[in-house]
Design a protein that fits this description.
homodimer; alpha/beta; L-amino peptidase D-ALA esterase/amidase; Ubiquitin-like (UB roll); seven-stranded mixed sheet; 11 helices; 28% strand
Chain lengths: 408, 408
């Protein structure tokens, strides 16, 4: 039976879930005297099952490698430490040592078994992690860990880089009188000060679930949400989504049950909320566009067309200029080898037709312009070649983006 | 035997080759009272063998389809008509009629057999070609056709869109006392006023060569030149390279001869010269970067890595800002699935090492900065995984580009 879901937008984040303590502190990892919070620690006293999805990058950052290794062991974990300001990527063997050291320091500080704290980093590539700062930050975190709203909020601030605001959401639903909580926080696809877009997202929940089942659910939740957004087309060395389940609600999630479906829905809702926040807070963007390619022969074709359109500089620039330039959309759609056919192509701004069967509906130009001038709108390309589709959240490209990223 | 080649840079272009007449006229194809030249016609009295390479876009513009059809018939041709200001792309059956009509009008006006004049267009997508303007332009061209330097120059101006200057080059070499000429003109990968980057290039030569042999040579010449440049990653519906050979020199080109090799060299030199001019005149760019990826397992891997780096918004923005941000290069190199290995990756700015075996050479930062601050420099990524390589010419991304393209 489908539950009733309650969404708490811009919630305190991870501490909404019973049993999770959080802290977010400032320890100057950027080594520039920057006063902002840059280290988050989140700890469950109860052992958690945990699942993660990670970047498919050839050069995964050291913390990504360490997380994969710990999760591969299959034992329970208790939480994580995450820093902003330094990605610990392209840092070689020394970087691996530092990531493992962060696991040890966090496990000791949280007074949990060794190697039960995961580690995530985001920030500049190719610089050694300043371990004395990190050590201070982890020590300081232990004195701040708590379950209050401000603890969750502090953690949500600490993982940010060029994001302008924290990104949190909580969804709850009730099973047999027991409330299940799924709480999340994320950092965005804006680029860190000199370097790198990194997407980090963390979810806490109080269901009881095996790591294997949790992994399957997480993959389902991530595909149409975090894996279906693009700001600038650059995948990061550090992208990570982690979900921790401590069982405190007493609700068990097993496959083939209504609870399984409801938990999947709740987790997807949290991921969707955070993904949209990431896109809307993309670096110097002014617009959020929901782009759907349908009628493709295969989902792969639909995704390739959608990503080509969403990442075309010409298309993104025209969105910034409120220019409903369907010719640029058609151009991008046609160069990825999906074998689209001009005479079948339909394009819509929201529900207003721009192109039907390859023929421009020019009398509707004023309506196109009005739609593209909004901060949020949708675009649909119907290839009319098959039954497959792909939906992607994306943004415009602004002069501000180039200016912001032209140097450190 | 290898010939001595003479390059005449910024030559008059196509009229350098004996037997070719050219004209470039203004006929207001943009329908905005714009006084600039927008229609070029080039005619050889002698019949020519001709070869073309065209966009691989799913939605080729009508003139591209018409050129392919004429060339497939295998008969000799006499030249071409080309216009800027309207791409005749995404214009359906009406657009095909218009393209064929341009072939007929040009063949009649040039007093050559029907269907022996090719047609090319560049400009806005999705608008009907203003045929009354085109008709006037073709008529006017016939009164202007000539072999003087200014005739070639007029034609070179007439095909431009957002280019800031014409692009021409001529290479000559001598065979048994006979001079062979290979003359070219091109328009650039800047975007036309509202819409589309289109690359058009035309070459005239006076060798005698079969269309099949010419096609093979053209493909060899295009691969490392026009097919190895990117400004913004957007392939156009209209990209076309055509070469016309009228035999006037009395020099025959057949496979397996020294002349074949020398002619291939000369044609490649012309293409290379024009390709570099296109990159350097890319829209609002400030830099031209020669990017080489070597040590790849396959050429495909090398090309994918090179294109990912060259088209990364982060990489391009950092070049604009004189920021030697090798972390962004490494990031882009790692996300295309070429299975690069951090510990083997070398990166060089010109010949100065930035990364050796994954280890940053930070003491050289001042040298990196000095190199990246220049208007032209090279970057080499050595993956150290194999023997394959790919070289690509590319540009930075500027705020000016976004501003220029944000609306029509």
């Amino acid at each position: 039976m489908k539950a009733t879901f309650t969404l708490r937008d811009n919630s305190p984040g991870l501490t909404d879930t019973p049993g999770f303590r959080a802290a977010g502190v400032a320890c100057d990892i950027r080594e520039k005297g920057d006063p902002r919070r840059d280290l988050a620690m989140v700890v469950s006293t109860l052992p958690c099952s945990c699942a993660g999805v990670f970047t498919t990058h050839d050069l995964p950052a050291a913390p990504v490698r360490v997380c994969r290794e710990i999760l591969a062991r299959g034992h329970a974990v208790h939480g994580f430490v995450a820093n902003s300001g330094n990605a610990n990527a392209c840092t070689g063997a020394g970087g691996m040592d530092h990531a493992w050291e962060m696991v040890r320091l966090a496990s000791n500080a949280a007074e949990v078994p060794q190697d039960t704290m995961l580690v995530c980093s985001t920030g500049r590539i190719g610089r050694a992690m300043p371990m004395s700062k990190v050590t201070q930050g982890i020590q300081l975190s232990t004195t701040k860990l708590g379950t209050d709203a401000n603890n969750g909020t502090d953690a949500a601030w600490a993982i940010l880089t060029s994001d302008t605001r924290p990104k949190t959401a909580t969804v709850t639903f009730v099973v047999d009188g027991k409330t299940v909580t799924v709480a999340g926080m994320a950092k965005g696809a804006g680029m860190i000060q000199p370097n790198m877009a990194t997407m980090l997202a963390f979810v806490t929940t109080d269901v009881a679930v095996s790591a294997d089942v949790l992994k399957g659910i997480l993959k389902k939740a991530v595909e149409p949400t975090f894996n279906a957004l693009t700001v600038d087309g650059d995948m990061s060395t550090n992208d990570t989504v982690l979900v921790f389940a401590n069982g405190a609600s007493g609700v068990n999630v097993t496959q083939g049950t209504a609870v399984y479906d409801n938990f999947t829905t709740a987790l997807t809702m949290v991921c969707e909320n955070l993904a949209k926040k990431i896109v809307k807070d993309g670096e110097k963007v002014t617009k959020c566009i929901e782009l759907t390619v349908k009628g493709a022969r295969t989902t792969t074709d639909a995704e390739r067309v959608a990503r080509a359109v969403a990442n075309s500089l010409l298309v993104k620039s025209s969105w910034f200029g409120n220019d409903p330039n369907w010719g640029r959309l058609a151009d991008a759609a046609g160069y990825v080898g999906a074998n689209i056919i001009e005479e079948r192509l339909d394009i819509f701004y929201n529900t207003t037709s721009a192109l039907i069967g390859g023929v421009a509906q020019d009398k509707l130009i004023p309506e196109w312009k009005a739609i593209v001038s909004q901060a949020e709108f949708s675009i649909t390309l119907n290839l009319n070649l098959g039954e497959s589709q792909f939906r992607l959240l994306t943004t415009d490209l602004t002069e501000g983006y180039v200016n912001y990223n032209k140097s450190e």
